[in-house]
Amino acid sequence: MNWNIPTVQRLTVAYLVFDQMANIYYYFLMNSTMYITDVLFAETPGSVSFFPGINVSMLVPGNPEISTICFAMLYTLPMVPIHGWEYARIALDLKGVLRNFLRASCYRKYLNY
Question: What contacts 82, CB < 8 A, 6 or more positions away?
Answer without folding.
Answer: 21, 22, 25
